[in-house]
Amino acid sequence: MYRMMALKGALRLEILGMRKKGRSAYSLAKEEFGFKGDKRKVLKQLELKIEETVIADALRLSIS
């Protein structure tokens, strides 16, 4: 979860124009999660993945 949140924040900054040394958050997110599309579409997919994970964790906790 922490990794996804960190990538989301870094990708938002990349969309705003910030740059960093090394691989971009965009390329990392595409590789790790298999997302397709431009930066904004990948960000949206990442946000949905985070939301799904939060919901799945909440359901798992409520069942146990």
> How much of the residues is beta strand, in percent?
under 5%
Listing every helix as H and every strand as E from the N terminus to the C terminus, the arrangement reads: HHH
Shape: elongated
Percent of residues in helices comes to: over 70%
Mean pLDDT: 95
Low-confidence stretches: none
Task: Domain count, please report it.
Answer: 1
Integer-rounded radius of gyration: 13 Å
Biggest sheet details: none
How many runs of DSSP E, i.e. beta strands? 0
Number of continuous helical runs: 3
Q: What class do helices, strands and sheet pairing give?
A: mainly alpha
Report, as a whole number of angstroms, the end-to-end distance: 20 Å
Describe the structure.
The protein has helices spanning 2-16, 25-33, 39-63. It has one domain (2-63). With 64 residues, the protein is an all-alpha fold. It contains three helices and no strands. Helix 1 runs antiparallel to helix 3 and helix 2 (25-33) packs across helix 3 (39-63).
Task: Give a brief description.
The protein is mainly alpha-helical and 64 residues long. Helix content is 77%, strand content 0%.
List keywords for this structure.
64 residues; mainly alpha; 0% strand
